Amino acid sequence: MTEESAFHNKYSLVKGAARRARQLQSGAPALIVAKSSKACRVAQDEIKQGFVKFTLAKRPDSH
How many CB atoms lie within 10 A of CB 43? Predict the structure, then answer.
């Protein structure tokens, strides 16, 4: 799975990585053995390796 297919576009990839980085900074354990100690880099690596996935919420019907 590529980043593009998992996140639809670069904006959603950045948004997902930022959310995961905040989780890491708040004390969540890393899902991989990371080469970096920076939360943002760890989050990006977790996403690239397929350990972090996000789902898109359905938009409510507007009548």
Answer: 26
